[in-house]
Amino acid sequence: MVQSKKQKYTFLAFCLVPTFIMFAVFTLYPLFSGLYYSFFDWSGASQDKEFIGLANYITLIKDAIIPNTIIHDYFLVITKVIGIMILAMFFAVALTQLKIKEAPFYRIVFFFPNIMSVVVIGILWTFIYNPNLGLVNSGLEFLGLENWARPWLGDENWALPSLVLPSIWAGIGLFMLMLMGGIANVSKSYYEAAEIDGANQWQQFWKVTLPLVWPQIKISVLYIVITTLNGSFIIVQVMTGGGPNNSTHVMGSYLYQQAFVQYNFGYGATIGVMILILSLLTVLILQFLLRRDKVEY
Amino acid sequence: MFVKRSIGQILGRTGIRLPLVLWTIAVLYPIFWMFLGSFKSNAEIYRNPWGIPESFHLQNFVEAWTNYNIDISVFNSLIVTAIGAVLTLVMAIPTAYAIERINFRGSKLLFTLYVSGMMIPMVLGWIPLFFLLMQLNLLDNIFGLAIVYAVSQLPFSIFVLTSFISTIPKSLEESAAMDGMSPYRVLWKIVTPLSMSGIITVTIMNAIQFWNEYFMALIFLQSSENYTLALAIDYISSEAQYTNAWGTLFASLVIAIVPVIILYAIFQQRIAKGMTEGAIKG
């Protein structure tokens, strides 16, 4: 290309600088600034911002609610990973390997909740769990299991597990598609070879499908973990607001409550730093645990 | 022998279909039920919460539209979605093009920086962002929210657009540059039209994201005349605890979901592909 160095750099600056300034101002600066805020006691009014060193972090360690929020977050992570991966894998295998005519229909339906708003999902499921009108309790009564009926979201022991089902319901489609993409890339000849060797369908699944779609499984698990740790508070906020009696608070919803409801912005930022560190650590550990040499036959 | 085997196969097929059919019902029934509920009166919702409405009346929609200011929040959501989606493109296309096609030092690093933005929990940044918007007079302002939305989708958009631009043959740009076309015109007249498919995918994904978004709107908007649809629905939902205006709530849920259903019906494959690609970044 015939253009001077100066022209090239002007064009480059035109392409990169405005976008980067926006990204720096609205993403990078707030993140680092959040780190900085965590060393202050601050209720939002600019005059009473007081540097208190690590005091927020000491409060964090002593705060009896914090360990529960962490446990709740990881409870959601683990149950979602197990629930979504098992169902998504089952559906992905069924829709690719079993030559079902109406497979595209299932694919389209199962994916749809992935693009629904969390608000709509949350309110819909709040209604499904409604103690008087809800589908769950009506269903249990219909089956003659009245004793099992309970105010699901109002029960301290059941509120958090009740949040798992909507999350799985809303998440499965995407991971099913990712796994289907992986299975579609596995050459038919492996299955033919396995069949000649006398492997039944179950053995084929364990020995052929699973190892060969391992990269997709790994990405799916990581993605579920990241999106849950970074976003589980949204469904919590919509469905329970952290209640009853803090039994469903996750780290993010507790941050919201501390910062934007009780105006402890410094302490809120400290919780944010904890979320950042925990989610980065979790991803690193997971990447180490899930490493497995690429299988090639 | 032949007959026996096919019976076994039929049974196997039915067995495998059962979970598929059950999950289809689990997905579709609540959504259908939400539509049905939006046509029922409150009394009927109590009497017959899960069945077909006795008569279809539109009172709930009228109520939501006029008494609960859904009209204003639909308008706000449309503005935020449109401005956010356009702004994302204006910022993402030049950067994606430069990262993919121009050799400069640090291009890999810049790309990594943007893409890692997809993995960072932004909730920490929302506290300082709140005060930043306040200083810029953009707090409780739908244009401020649109800017925040646009920047939040930059990592995803740059990621998908770079991979898309990399599939365009270089020769077209080179010959245009030979003919004396400036790089700005190459970007605008050659690269942008050729990556239109990628741009459409990214825009649909971003638009759905902005239309649905709830939490940033909750933090950055305060007065009810600025509420987006998600906030208005959340408000109606918390009101309904006392007013029992469930029908109105369902009508507003339907208003929120219909545009998404229409987009999904038209662009189903694009959306599915865009989302899976966005997730497979490792």
TrEMBL record, chain A:
Q: Gene3D superfamilies attached here?
A: MetI-like
Against PROSITE patterns, the record matches this protein to:
ABC_TM1
- Record carries keyword Transmembrane: yes
Where does the record place the ABC transmembrane type-1 domain?
70-286
In terms of InterPro entries, this protein maps to:
ABC_transporter_permease, MetI-like, MetI-like_sf
Sequence intervals crossing the membrane: 12-32, 74-96, 108-128, 158-179, 221-240, 260-290
What superkingdom heads the lineage? Bacteria
Bilayer topology term: Multi-pass membrane protein
From the Swiss-Prot or TrEMBL record, state where the protein is found: Cell membrane
Query: Is Nuclease among the key words of this record?
Result: no
Ordered alphabetically, the record's keywords are: Cell membrane, Membrane, Transmembrane, Transmembrane helix, Transport
Q: Which family does the entry's similarity section mention? A: Belongs to the binding-protein-dependent transport system permease family.
Task: Give the protein name, as stated in the record.
Answer: ABC transporter permease protein YurN
From TrEMBL, chain B:
Topological category with respect to the lipid bilayer: Multi-pass membrane protein
- Keywords, A to Z? Cell membrane, Membrane, Transmembrane, Transmembrane helix, Transport
Q: Which GO terms describe its cellular component?
A: plasma membrane
Annotated GO biological process:
transmembrane transport
**What gene does this protein come from?**
ycjP_2
Chief subcellular location equals membrane
Source species: Virgibacillus massiliensis
Segments crossing the lipid bilayer: 20-39, 74-99, 111-136, 142-165, 186-208, 245-267
Name of the protein: Inner membrane ABC transporter permease protein YcjP
Asked if the Swiss-Prot or TrEMBL record annotates the protein with the keyword Ion transport, the reply is no
Subcellular location as annotated: Cell membrane
Q: Where is the ABC transmembrane type-1 domain?
A: 74-267
Q: Which SUPFAM superfamilies does this one have?
A: MetI-like
Q: Which family does it belong to?
A: Belongs to the binding-protein-dependent transport system permease family.
Question: Looking at the Swiss-Prot or TrEMBL record, what is one Pfam family this protein matches?
Answer: BPD_transp_1
Classification lineage: Bacteria, Bacillati, Bacillota, Bacilli, Bacillales
